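Convert to structure. Protein one:
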Amino acid sequence: MTGITVIGNHDFVLGFQLAGIHNTFVEENIEPRITTILAEKETDILVLQDEDYKKLSPPLKKRANESVKPIVIAVGSLEEDDLRVRIKKVIGVDLYKK
């Protein structure tokens, strides 16, 4: 199990490396790496930039959205409700519930 994996351009990945995440990939074409990670299911959380996520092919984007392990998180301008739904799907609890 690798915990958190980050894929993206150098600047995006560097911030996560400085935060102590070592399983990172600097790549321009992220689709092959994402396909591999989704198939292996060894990663718990896959982090990518929202801009890269939007560029994924429709079938891969659908697969990423439906994935429970790894949970795919696009960092950037995702709506709070989308993140809320993903967290609830993974842990089974609505953390935002008051």
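Protein two, convert as well:
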Amino acid sequence: MLSGPSGVGKSTVGDRVLAREAGLVRSVSLTTRPPRRGDVDGRDYRFVPVARFEELRESGRLLEWAEVHGHLYGTEAAWVDGRLAEGKDVLLEIDVQGGMSVKERRPDSALVFLLPPSRDDLERRLRGRATDREEDVVRRLANASAELAAASRYDYIVVNDDLDRCVADVRGILAAERLRTSRTSLGG
């Protein structure tokens, strides 16, 4: 799982890792938020009405879910389980709340926290993408403090100050996790 505050580069890092790693697929999160300019349903998110999201949540069919920035986000457990049964690794790009939920339900998952080089850099990135209203940027920056405080609860921390190095670090973590004895025929 890749987590970190909004604007840290989860999607960019995830895209680059996915392009270089056979057998790795991205989980497409469900969300109740409206699509942003350029979002494609089924590729960026699966945009669902609140009632549908609540039905999935209440029936226990979500691996994780969280309310973030006033909208609901979640991951369907059956989709993840299906990919794992096919022998694929699954990349989730999720918020800190979701990361902690997945770790509780799936302790063998690997959590990677992406840190920005600085808070100023994070603010520049959020404002530079020009996809959010000012009040959304302010809310995301306020939430970033609590999210950054959760970094120590993750298995790995990677600073996204150089994109190529960051991608190489995440790929290295993936390689190490694939070699864990608990994931091989020797480990059970």
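The mean pLDDT is 89. The chain has one domain: 2-183.
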